[in-house]
Amino acid sequence: MSDDELHRRLASYEGRAATVSGRGPDPVDPAMIRHWCEVMGDTNPAYSGPEAIAPPAMLQVWIMSGLSGPTARSAVFDELFSLLDAAGCTAIVATDCEQDYLRPLRPGDVITFDSVIESVSPRKDTRLGAGHFITTRTEIRAGGELAGVHRFRVLKYAPAARPAREAAERPRPVINRDNAGFWEGVAGRRLLIQRCDGCGRLRFPWLPGCADCGSARWTPIEAQGTGTVHSYVVMHHPPFPAFDPPYAVGLIELAEGVRMISNITGVRPPEVRIGMPVRLEFLRAGGEQWLPVFRAAEEGP
Hints:
By secondary structure, the protein is mainly β. Helices cover 13% and strands 37% of the residues.
């Protein structure tokens, strides 16, 4: 099938229903609003109290179906994806979304929605591979009243052949006048954090002034090098010649109370756990470049 013929068939799905009479799995919920605000660090008083509204950016949250998968998706949507699969476009990646907010959502609102396949692009060549962008348009209602519109775009593509991996050094850190002292410490195999001379607060990453008291005076102190995994992700994509996925990137809480992002070594990525004790070590990343990383430590008695 030629590219033009394939696109004509794909375009015939435009305007057809992707979801019919969808219903949010739960009403708008104060607990979910609180969790969202804590994760985002959003302290806007509009999102708490007896007159609370949901943050507008949570619009999609109330229609997500979870691991069980969508229950209201139409057969038409599956047909479109099957056609692309048959054409070799077997991979998918989300690219972007757009949202319009028409009225605030409040705790207790019951959410319903319908969506259509708004557009299917002609063939596009990307670094990931050649494929088609599919845009769905979802109208989200609260109590039957239109509350927002959510456009979601994915690329369904045929994965491009990967070139042979070449040896490469890890990217060099950006060193400037504000963090040069930190990297000088790393070069000497020392992990330095800052202590404000005004209020005594410890901080990392390095900053020119204290966020608490505003003092521009500080003293570098050497961290013990012990800590725990506060949070982490396992990176599988995108591939990069200097890295060998999968690998774990952790938010490490140091014994001093500050947190830093670094690799977790000495353990298989699936075995990393929140709360896991780690210990600092230094990784030579080519030439004279050293990087601080954290190796999984033995649990104490």
